[in-house]
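Cast an eye over this sequence plus tokens and explain the fold to me:
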Amino acid sequence: MADNPQPDASATTVDAIVEAARKHREDRRIREALALLRTAARLWPKNPRVQHQLGVALLASGDGEGVAPLQLAVSLDPTNVDFQADLAEACSALGDHRAAAAWYRRAVAALPTRPELVVRFGGMLSRTGQFDDAERWIRRAIALKQAFGRGYVMLGDAQQRGGRMREALSSFLRATQVQPDYADAYVELTAALTAIGAPPEQIMRTAKIAADHYPTRGEIVGPFVQLLRDHGREDAYVEYATRWINSEMEKVAADEFGAYGFRILSSDGMLGRIGEIALQLDLHVKMKMLGWLPPFVTILLAPKEEVCNQPFLDYWRPYVTVVDEPELIDRLAPLKSRIPFNPAYVRLPSGKVISKARAYFAVQEEWQRQGRGALLGLMQPHVDRGHEGLRRMGVPEDAWFACVHVREPGFLKEQARSSETLRNADITAYLPAIEEITRRDGWVIRLGDPTMTPLPAMPQVVDYAVSPFKSEEMDIFLMASCRFLIGTTSGPVMVSEVFGVPVGAADYFPIGGLLHTSKDVIIPKPYRHKATGRMPHFEEYLKMPLAFTYDSEYVASLGLEPLSSEAEDIRDLAIEMMERTQGEWPYDAYDEKLNARWHDLSRSFAMGEVGCRVGRGFLRRHRRLFRSL
């Protein structure tokens, strides 16, 4: 027995616990990792591996106290350069860059020929803005190791942070050449190509490699799916989106918190745009109420500083658990990656996954078939304060009013090459419609933000957007209580729609981005060939991808330009909305024929019956753009 000593039972146990905790952490199950490590730290307080893993897990949970166990680990095992490097990263994350550099220099001095260690030091220097030093250390690491894909990616990252985009692009490309199986190189190369406006085909080639390697990572697959969608790769778009969403839903269902019926709604890009709040939450809640999603508690983490309109978000609290307390958000944040639910891509009962805009047709068709109305209605205190606001603006108590919102670039500070620019319009083209509403005894309240082009003084018109009466709560009251809203492709049309207010939308782009209820009427932006001036037939582009692409560069590459709505068409739209909201049905048999033909063409891209109509005057004037009737 003496010649065959048994292994130290406590050492074996420590190794098992540390390994289990490490795997929990890598799988983002931080709570489970911390539970194991805290127990281990009580039992073996002098074990450096336990203290090291405890420090790393605490920092991963956002707890700065993780520095203390890392310092203890280094003191217990002062020769371990990995412990020193992790302590350096912890110091850097907490803003102590001088201490971070000192620990890294100590580690590198102890093991100067280890490229992974040297490149980590360079990466830390890059993140703290020391780009020249970062590049020098990263190049040293590359010199130590052949085919070092990560080294070139880190070099490209430092160059990109330093504003040297072309050099960064070359480094990312070099990473794919020296190590073709290093997937992160394709991720970074795709992002760099996108940033410089490279041709879509070139971007898609690298994005496909990244998406194939990381099929469940939404930050990689999502942009690739959108690129496929915008460029008409319908089968590939559905394939990748379906694989991504199905794998995410399976992962979440297997998670401890997911199994208990909790999901955290992915809010990227939603909270800062009122139209996205309306569209995504309305779609999500209706799918749950229709039974198209499994029952679960929907949690939305909503830091107040990120929410563009808090009163509007409050209207969704009966349907969604909105968490806005900072401490609770911090506690729940680690779960965002474990139990996410993506509202931007939707799995229909058929199993097919498509974008939210297309899925909305199917959901709203079934919603209306069941005779269900709008989800939201104004609360009485809100109504009372809103009417008081109208009186202060000078609107008579017995007057009816319509709202007008014409999208401009100021709110999002859009640049000339922004993909959003084609959704903007000129307020002057809407003046005849405004005059027609006031001529028929209505009042007009122009919505928007203070960057809007001011309106000329007009009777019975309130330029609320640039007035002292503006507030978040009043915004919602006006959109939810007007007789109808005349708008463009922007958030207010969605807000009015979810409150059940009829919407007439002009300058609508893309042409397939229709509204969803039978109360709504749109005028799309038709196209014209820039070279010949010819307007293509509706049959030519009421299909994917043109029907749903927001990509202005792609549209331009086809030699097309969208045409703004004509003032006459917008005025006719206002008349049509007034007649409809007065209980009239202002259409003859020919109008119905034109509208039915438009709907027939729309079925090529909509996942359900298109609820809205297309403007009567617009279709009559452009009837020649139907190839057949």
